[in-house]
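Weekly modeling sync, notes
Attendees: AB, CL, MP (scribe)

Item 1: holo prediction request
CL wants a bound-state model with NDP before deciding which constructs to order. AB pointed out that an apo prediction alone won't tell us much about the pocket. Agreed to run with the ligand included and paste results into these notes for async review.

Input as submitted:
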Amino acid sequence: MFIARNILSKSLLQSSSTRRAAAISSQLSSQTSKLTHTHARTMASSIPKTMKGVIMEKNGGTEVLQYRTDLPVPEPKEGQILVKNDFVGINFIDTYVSIEITERILHEAASSAVRTSLTTNNSYFRTGLYPAPHWPYMLGRESEGTVVATGPGEVHSLAPGDRVVCLSEATYAEYTAAPAAKAARIPADLPPKTAAGALLQGLTALTLIREAHHVQAGDWVLVHAAAGGTGLWLCQLLKAVGANVIGTASTAEKVKLASQAGATHMVNYSHEDVKARVDELTGGKGVVAVFDGVGKSTFDLSLDCVARKGSLISFGNASGAVPPLAIARLSAKNVRLMRPTLFNFIATREEFEGYTEELMGFIVRDGMDVRIHETYPLSDVARAHQDLEGRKTTGKLLLDPSK
Ligand code: NDP
């Protein structure tokens, strides 16, 4: 067990150049066997013309989510694979707060630059915090299923019959035309639901602790919403690195779950003083990194808790968008501020493949836990969004597109 943990923490601490070299060599070996399709290939079993799916024709609350059974099955285009989805991952990015709150955030934004940055982000929320590129629009960012056809062009040796997990738009459906470059074969020994339960949030946590702030053994770090989907991954990975993790959560049940996942100290931020606890634990120095996916309601607290020369990694807006700030505030402690998105850490095939292989290894070899909160029927997507927005969930929410 000790040896396993040592190897794991070594692999988590490896430099990005070592990791990149490994990814490139794996890419080269896959190139020798790659299939470049000039015509679409299809599984023998017939693909229907229509499918179940959820679309939106306008922004709003959960009432805008329309469950339909008559949507056209998409055709895989250049570089795409057609995946028959078994499980679809739900992420906070899909839901966001209600349209009323969104509008208030935008009105409160003091400058047009903030509105521009919010509305040009490469993400599309149900509420319109970020605009949909077209109507009707289908939500969803990840799924697990079987390849049933491939489009023309480079499909990275994927073929009909392969079980894959992918990052793609428009996954709230039975079928998704996904970019092959963002799909990976699922290891044979991974049980159903695990890959869709892990991919987006696991990759987010892994890239945050490696590239946003490279956490080292012995570092003190603060993780907000530590019992959420991304939070539980951060706790597990940071424990493997050997960091001292101070987590925050809003209920006793969440505090317990995050502790079990690896947070060394937990603070219930619904009634405890986080700053006082951080000071007490770090001898007044503060934490070298804060991973803050809560946003508006925790940003000032995070800045208070970060150490001199530390990093504030603001990676999400669960409580609302962080209002504009005077950059001079950072100079009080020489704080590094970053607002990263996963998609810029895994933009190339090499980056996606390298990190995904590593993540799958943590699950298969090192036994990291993929906690599924609930698998909702696709027709019950509104309840799933309400639960996530209502802070009722821990771990991952999935959709079953067959129901
Ligand atoms: P979670 O499962 O973490 O759910 C969100 C959690 O945030 C809640 O359970 C709740 O935990 C906490 N929270 C605090 N205040 C609020 C509020 N006002 N409303 C709702 N929730 C609140 O979701 P995810 O793991 O999917 O995402 C977490 C964050 O990470 C989100 O902001 C998301 O956008 C971001 N993210 C960013 C990515 C990126 O690339 N930058 C990628 C993936 C996620 P508690 O009750 O304990 O406070």
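Recorded for review: The longest strand covers residues 80-90.
Action items: CL to compare against the apo run; MP to circulate these notes.
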